[in-house]
Amino acid sequence: MVEVQFKRERKEYFINRDKLPLAVGDYVVVDVDRGEDLGRVTETGELAARKQHEKKAQLNKIRRLATEAEREGLGRLSEREADAFTICAKKVEEHELEMKLVDAEWQFDGNKVIFYFTADKRVDFRQLVKDLAAIFKTRIELKQIGVRDEARRIGGCGRCGYKLCCTSFLTEFEPVTLKAAKEQRLSLNPSQISGICGRLMCCLMYERDFYKDQTKKFPKEGREYIFTEGRPERVSGLDLFNEQVELENRDGIRRKLPLEEFLNSARECPCRSSKPERKNNPVQHES
User: Fold this and answer.
1) Positions of the region Disordered (predicted)?
2) Which of 41, 82, 188, 240 has the maximal Cβ count within 10 Å?
């Protein structure tokens, strides 16, 4: 099993039936729908097979290693894609279509050009396809993508300063909810927890299980407990990483206690749970 990367981090999986001596970084010519394409090998063997299984991608065959001339042709292909993008953008404007053109990608053999776009609703682009087919004299494919896929194709860096996860190792997008941010005690300000795509950052899910498991070990904030000293103290903070509990007494003095020591010595303050009994006096009626 071989993972091959094409333009804008697009990755697909292929079978090396001829057992070519491939290494990461090699350029190969592969079978695709009605033709062939050229890409760079990014993974081989068991890891590539595991990624393919997760993605459940259709498999085609690797034909051969690319020649020097074919590798040089990739640079010229980029120029053609820039021209195609400009032409398509003008046609979209002419037809007054409510869509945002994201990228253009030529298949290496020239048998197809794909235009990627985003739109808030369904777009009737049949006339646009006819116009583009008349101009480029080849198969035209318009593919609608989401804002997360748009970020993947455009690329960039996240708030951490590293390359976007979706352009480096993520094969599938996992749903991310605001609950994941709450569980990690993060700011709920959208500008602080959103990626360049405008959606919640994918990395919010990476450590979610750790936070959920750790939180179960700790007492809830705000509850009062009594220790051997006999004075009630309120849980004012939790340190999940160092496993410490911050306590505050009624004079405002704070201290930190190891979680294990807290669990062994603390008992919940009865004054918190005790509620005054409500007398149920029946209404008396005059006879």
Assistant:
1) 268-287
2) 41
Cα separation, 152 vs 202, in Å, equals: 12
What element of type H or E holds 260?
helix 259-265
| DSSP H or E stretch at residue 128 | helix 126-136
Q: Provide the pairing of β-strand 60-65 with 27-32.
A: antiparallel
**138 is written with which tokens?**
């080849």
pTM score: 0.70
Residue 261's domain comprises 218-273
**Alpha-carbon distance 59 to 40, whole Å?**
16
- Kindly report the backbone phi and psi dihedral angles of residue 162, in degrees, each rounded to the nearest multiple of 5, phi listed first: -95, 165
Q: Within 10 A of 119 (CB to CB), how many other CB atoms are there?
A: 13
Residue with tokens 């340190």: 239
User: From the CB of residue 214, how many other CB atoms can be counted at a distance below 10 Å?
Assistant: 17
Instruction: Clarify whether residues 202 and 183 are in a common domain.
Output: yes
Query: Measured in whole angstroms, how far is the alpha carbon of residue 99 from the centre of its chain?
Result: 23
Q: Which helix (H) or strand (E) holds 115?
A: strand 112-118
Looking up tokens 């039936």 gives 17
Alpha-carbon gap, residue 270 to 141, rounded angstroms: 69
